[in-house]
Each structure stands twice: as C-alpha cells, then as structure tokens.
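Today's session is about reading a structure prediction critically. Students often jump straight to the picture, but the first step is always the sequence itself: look for stretches that repeat, for charged clusters, for runs of hydrophobic residues. Only then move on to the predicted structure, which in these notes is written as discrete structure tokens rather than atom positions. Here is the chain we will use throughout the hour.
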Amino acid sequence: MTTPQTAPAPTAPRLGTLLRACHPAPAAAVTLLATALAVAGGRGAVGSALAGAAVGAGQLSVGWSNDLVDRHRDAAAQRCDKPLATGELTAGTVRAAAGWALACCVPLSLASGPAAGTAHLAGVAAAWAYNLGLKRTVLSWAPYALAFGLLPAFVTLGLPGSPWPAPWLTAGAALLGAGAHFANVLPDLDDDLAAGVRGLPQRLGRAWSGAAAAVLPAAASVVLVTGPAGPVGPAGRAALAGTALLTLPAVLAPRGRGPFLAAIAVAALDVVLLLTRP
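Below is the predicted structure for this chain, in token form.
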C-alpha cells in the first residue's frame, strides 16, 4: 500500500526575486541622489542617513506598486524580467511588501521634521498616483516633475530653520524629473501603445519623445548653471557646452537609441550640477 504524495509547501520568495520587482536600478539611483543631496546640503551623517532611508522606503513602495498594477500587462507582453509576470512572485507578496515599505516611509520621512516629511510624502503620493492611473493620461509627466522637484525641499526643510530651496534648484530638479519620465518610457513605448497606455510620451510618438528626453534635462542644465547669483564660471560654461554637444544630435536625429543615451548622459551631468551648486 502506497502513501499518497503531498505537494511541497510553497517556499517564501527569495529577497533577490522580490528586489527585482521594485525597479532596483532607478530606485537605487534616486535613493543615492537624495542621500548625496542631503550630505551636500549639510544634513550631517544622521540626517543624511534618515533622508536616504526615507527615500529608499518610498522608492521600494513605488516600484513594487508599479509592477503590481502592471502585472497583467507585463504577463501579456511576456516580460521575462518581471517576477510577477513570470509567476515567481504572487500579487499578495508584492502587495504586502509595498504596504510595509510605504508604512516605513511615513515615520522615516517625518523623522526629518514635519515640513520636510510632508514634502517627501507628497512626492511619494505623486509617484503612486502615476502608477494608479496618471501614467495613462496627458499629465503623465507631472508626477515625475513634482516628485523630483520636491527632493531639494525634502533636504533643505530638514535643516535648522526649515528653509525652502532656491526656486532655480527646484525648477532644475523638476525639469530633470520630467526628462526622466520620457527617457524611462522610450524603451517600452511600443509595448505601452499595444497595451493602451496613452501617456504624453506615447501620444507624442517616439521621435518627439526622444527629443523631449534630451531637451528637458538640457533645460535643467541651463537652469542649474545660470540660476545661482553671479557670473557663470569656467566649469559652468563647460557644462553648458557639453550639454549642447549631447543634446543637438538627439534633437536633429531623434531616432534609434541616440536620444535615450543623450538623455542619460545629460541627466548624469545634471546630477553633478545638483550636488555642486551652492
């Protein structure tokens, strides 16, 4: 007489698999940028660590919620890089992870003070709004612009006296965020159109969106160089020249991967400017 075989109990997802569903590259990049801004802004070791932890928790919640909302579309597109689409993760697991990350983000943000915490949580709310529907509208760029534009405020409002950042710094960060939206959409634009996603980049098409992906970070460079009081120095002039050299080919020939690569290069330059501007 044989004993019936029982199915093995499902194993908990590995941490690496869960992290693959949080958009790890952009999440890490934004977290590192915020931490570096906090260090450069004088938040000190503890304040900078708290700022980085808050932004990291927010980014995890945003990344996981994005894959959770898009899981059926990703499965239809046969996205092998999406653990939810391949069945490596369940929706319940990712939903719980996003909820815990968001729950941690609230006290971590408010640890920088009520004004700074509110600024950061507003940016996280904008990112969630993008995931939950704004990505399909003509206002798809707005959450990126708002969330990035509030990062300098999150840093400065956590300083003694809770000062607001200079308007040019906020504007430069917002332009960088809007450019990041176009650059982020470009690789998946065709899949988005097939799935009925009609954000602003999809409505404009690949050529115009490619140009916007390069021009918006270039505009951020101009703002970040010319915004501070006083004449533009040699480093600023070199930054503007480099921005022009990178942007013009993408605008004149907005096809292929040129605009995407130009956007990434100019965005990297903008990050340097963000960290070095007074």
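Discussion point for the tutorial: The longest helix spans residues 44-69.
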